[in-house]
Design goal:
five-stranded antiparallel beta sheet; 4 helices; alpha+beta; single chain
Amino acid sequence: MSDPRSRAGRWCATPVLVFASLAVMLAGAALTAVCVLTIAYPLRLAGQPGLLTVTGCLAEGAGKGAHTTCYGRFTSDSGTIVARPVPYAGSLRVGARLPVQYVESADDCYRVGAAYTGVRVLGVSVGLFAVVAGPVGIAQAVALVAPRWAARLREGRPCRTLWRVTVGLFKGLALLAVVSGSVSVVVHLMAD
């Protein structure tokens, strides 16, 4: 690849930077979507609240592809019991009882509580951070190929305001990620 300080080097580096920025933005959007869609379960806003009593576990696969699915009896808070064994993706000891949200349409259970909410909030904040970082990378790519135009654009008042808003958003999302991740870790450590 050419020297990035030369004109040819800048034109070569720009598509790579744009592609990388778009990839980061798309990955952030996907992470945000997954976490937002599942955050309702640990908050007990979706699904049927109840208690899962583990009756057995099944290990599948080997090596890095191995995973464990436990099955148990789900008793809702209203007292109804699901007749068939309910799956839970994770390794638990037989006889363990844990509060979950049961989603009948997906035939799955989600753990509830501050630790699991914190993990989802962490995912949302990191995802949004990546979504905001994508356009910043694209702006850097434009500045590589058109430095004079980018300098004139940065001198304008709307650009300075947008820059302040973007920096504030980065700081806020970083703080949210640190707080939610810390809460999640502390709650996990206290539970063990």
